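LOG
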Amino acid sequence: MRAVQVEEFGGPEVLVVRDLPEPEVGPGQALVEVAAANVMYLDTLVRGGWGLDYFPVTPPYVPGAGVAGRVVRIGPGVDPGWEGAAVVADTGHADGTPERPTLPVDGYAERAVVPESALVRVPEEVDPRAALALLHDGPTALALERAAGFGPSTTVLVAAAAGGAGTLAVQLARRAGARVIGAARGGAKLALVRELGAQETVDYSEPDWPERVRALTGGAGVDVVLDGAGGALGAAAFGTLADGGRFVGYGSAGGSFTEVDTEEAGRRGIEVLGLFDLKQADGDRQDALRMVLEMARMGRITPHVGLALPLERAAEAHAALEGRAVLGKALLIP
């Protein structure tokens, strides 16, 4: 079986394709023939040695936290109805207990073993790559929609609007009737954000972009900020909020989560929610995933896959993510 391994902690160059033994299927598990493997920014951080207290991985290991494909073998105790099913699933459940934190491992491979409890069926009408693009970002986007509470009278700023969750959040906000301002870097990303429904866009490579956001609101500020950028960009986005607004920080594409001045937020009546305020139980997350898969089947939401590369080019996929060059999702194709 071909798979990508992280040989040692370091840059993208430590990702190497190897021939590894076929994974064994144990009780309660299923073997998935992988059609596509999810590539997340988290994968690049862990590959570099970040977050080992929470993600205790030891090289050599196979990175990747999710796959789409077809079940080709089941272990004892697994419902026979899963055989041959098209599925998406989280990987990294080494002991078959999804109650434990999921390690971002075992995804970049031709085949992956996952617990039966991790399997979610993909509707026939939904392309496996589109389904995989929804695996993590779909439930996140629905959680953002709930937390934001936007509607027809709401102006929403989506920071990192061309990212995986950002592209979905733009679409959900527009479907709710909100006015959407999408913030991203560069013409290609801004064009995508407009295509997905944002009425206005701002380029946050320009130093005066927060002033432009405020100008677009007539100086009043936005009602909601969905911050997938973090860092200095997230802090600047916070400054575009109207008094009484809501700030939802869920991403760290800028290298860290946004540090909000809690005294200022309290003084201005701004509600601040972070990533852990959006957390869902595994069962709830799978229900949310089924919901967005059905929305995709009905054409009500369209995930955007901006980069799909073979396993041999995993290093290129990581470099593109680190260079903020990916529009939407990045995937690997075995």
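LOG (cont.) second protein
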Amino acid sequence: MLARVSPTLYARRLSLAMRTYSTGRSEGSVAQTREFGKKEKAHEDEYARRHDAELLRKLKADIEAKQKQVAELEAKGTGKGKTD
């Protein structure tokens, strides 16, 4: 036999379920707040700066290696019968 649910109890359960469901943005949502956006942007900017610094470090190391190579080639070239 089915238990009979009183209309007031049914209404309370329905209102609780309806209250927890939201289709729009609520003020408490973390991902939509301005402060979260600022913090996320700061992290992205920091990552970009570190990435750029790492690229610059690698480029400088490559430039130094190429300069050494050019200096060695010039030194070899001047000793092989070049006259001024």
